[in-house]
Amino acid sequence: MRASYASDPNQSRGRLYLEEESAFRSCFQRDRDRIIHASAFRRLKHKTQVFIEHEGDYFRTRLTHSIEVAQVARTISGALGLNAELTEAVALAHDLGHTPFGHTGEDALGALMAPFGRFDHNAQAVRIVTDLERHYAEFDGLNLTWETLEGIAKHNGPVVGELPWALEVYQARHDLELDTYASAEAQVAAIADDVAYNHHDLHDGLRAELFSTDELAELPILSGCFARVDEAYPGLNYYRRRHEALRRFFGVLVEDVIGVGQESLSRIAPETADDIRHAGFQIIRFSDPVFEDLKVIREFLFTRMYRAPSVIEMRKAVTKVVEELFPFFMAHPDRLPKQWRKDVEDAKGEVALARIVSDYIAGMTDRFALQCHEQFLGEG
Questions:
Q1: CATH number for the domain including 199?
Q2: pTM above 0.90, yes or no
Q3: What per-residue string of b and e applies to 278-296 under the rule 16 or more CB within 10 Å gives b?
Q4: Are the beta carbons of 204 and 59 closer than 8 angstroms?
Q5: CB-facing half-sphere around the CA of 344: CA atoms within 13 A
């Protein structure tokens, strides 16, 4: 049963373009379905999470990560009496704006776009679902509800100060109230992202042999998880042992978020979804002790995984790809695919062209970016 502070599809603020409602799906279900069918969602299959997509079939990609986030988000949402369909829609869409090569690609494109209005993957996700997905006859984008767009834009908290250009352009058309917190559903999607990557980055790092199981067993939270596994299953196979420990770690994080959420919601007693938005703090979060333990784990991952020598070498290589593709397309916009050329023809000035080039590069998969670099800039 949904709580009074859950987002009610019957009370949605609606879509930018008026549409006839579905006879058998809520507006948030339609949002979720449109996101799943979007071209940008399919491309996440070949976009980096930590390891470059072609480095191994077992490592997470942005697509598998997004699916895991959605699963965690639905679990937390259900436990807190929230709207699971809106939660899932925001969770599935939260990484649509990521560039090829993960945060490395975003850093490179962000530096290149600094003179042209900046680049931010959350703002780019809004741009994708409001403009760049051009399949429908009556509008550009997916025409998602206000609540889903709000969640994509500010699931990590209020967006204040100078806005990235992609978000500024849409905000001028459709006020997403960026200075407030998002719905509880969007906050759940944000924390589910943290739960998912803290869990699966440890798993992927083990598979890549960047650190050992014994090292994990010394970390906060994980030490207790391994101890419980060893007590319950003495002599367990190496791979099963670490899987069981990581499974318990996953559970600790989810249960912690649910417990904190239940306590906060009980304390502030919100009656509507807007009460959550105006509470003045992020209601869905980790407890302070777990947050402090996660900082230790994140520092371990930063040192041993994200800045591992092999990862650093790949970061340098893919940074070069983005840094060279951008000026190439700025100098040769005629090399963009023909469906982009109408935008180029309409572009007035260097800033407008840079934003088109940024949209194009940001939408590339890892493999397509490498292919384009080889085609246009390869030697020989």
A1: 1.10.3410
A2: yes
A3: ebeebbbbbeeebeebbee
A4: yes
A5: 16
